[in-house]
Specification:
Restriction Endonuclease; 6-stranded mixed β-sheet; disordered N terminus; about 280 residues; 8 strands; about 30% strand; 10 helices; two-stranded antiparallel sheet; alpha/beta
Length: about 280
């Protein structure tokens, strides 16, 4: 979730784009085996979410960070949204992020910022010579060192939910570049040894079928969004250049999470409480 979350408005994008250059339909060989991932997650999560694991995230979370993982699983199991919430505007006041706030904040999952200076030490040996007691010239090496301080080498990378050594974030409908910021933050926390694994939740492409059935988008007051008497269809609000699983997999396949193990979950139609295919 982005504090500066800006609801994306991509009327010109194809919401079903799956073969674009910066979209991945499936994980590549760097992802963890699907059968291993499914063994580490409860059936309730697999039914509601599309799930992928990178750098053994599922194994690490289930085996070494079980207490925190159990809390996330509980929050994910209880998460649901309505068709009205989907049609309403996003931004900081969106009801969808608030659902996770209500579940996780009371349990100690806090927005966390990492900052740090970098001390760089250079060492070398200066070669010289001296005369020993017998009057012979012998070679010498004198150890030398110098330190350089790079202040604010890490400057304010933020993750919306961190508890102990686990990170969690939600990207419902931001511009897809938000994923780069999230994965860079995950990597920074991991490289500094303060996070063992991260969970990132976004939309599954399966939701596009739902968006098409819901008609026009709504304004905050519940009236129909539109311009010049023409309603703005909901499907265009959730365009291909927003945060959804295809955009996230592309980045995970490229290794943009760095050293950080990441469990990626895509919200599926089963999470919508008042919608069914029938």
């Amino acid at each position: 979730m982005d504090d500066d979350l800006q609801q994306a408005d991509d009327d010109g994008d194809n919401p079903d784009a799956s073969q674009a250059g910066d979209v991945a339909a499936v994980p590549n060989e760097s992802a963890d085996p699907d059968d291993l991932v499914r063994r580490k997650l409860p059936a309730s999560i697999l039914a509601k979410y599309e799930v992928y694991s990178y750098r053994n995230a599922a194994l690490i979370l289930a085996e070494t960070r079980k207490a925190e993982f159990d809390e996330l699983v509980e929050a994910l199991e209880s998460f649901s949204l309505t068709t009205t919430q989907i049609r309403m505007p996003g931004g900081n006041e969106s009801e969808i992020p608030k659902t996770f706030n209500a579940s996780l904040r009371p349990k100690g999952w806090y927005e966390t910022v990492i900052r740090g200076d970098l001390v760089v030490t250079l060492t070398w040996k200066e070669e010289g010579s001296r005369v020993d007691r017998r009057g012979r010239t012998v070679a010498t090496q004198t150890p030398r060192s110098r330190q350089t301080l790079r202040e604010r080498f890490l400057d304010g990378h933020k993750i919306d939910y961190v508890k102990n050594r686990v990170a969690f974030d939600l990207e419902w409908n931001s511009k897809d570049q938000t994923f780069d910021r999230d994965l860079y933050a995950f990597s920074a926390f991991s490289q500094c040894g303060v996070v063992d694994a991260a969970v990132l939740v976004t939309r599954s492409a399966e939701l596009n079928a739902v968006f098409r059935t819901l008609g026009p988008a709504l304004l905050k007051d519940g009236s129909i969004d539109g311009e010049g008497g023409k309603p703005k269809m909901l499907i265009h609000k959730y365009g291909a250049s927003t945060t959804w699983m295809g955009k996230l997999l592309y980045r995970l396949n490229a290794g943009r999470n760095g050293s950080c193990p990441v469990l990626a979950l895509g919200i599926r139609p089963a999470c919508i409480s008042d919608w069914s295919e029938s």
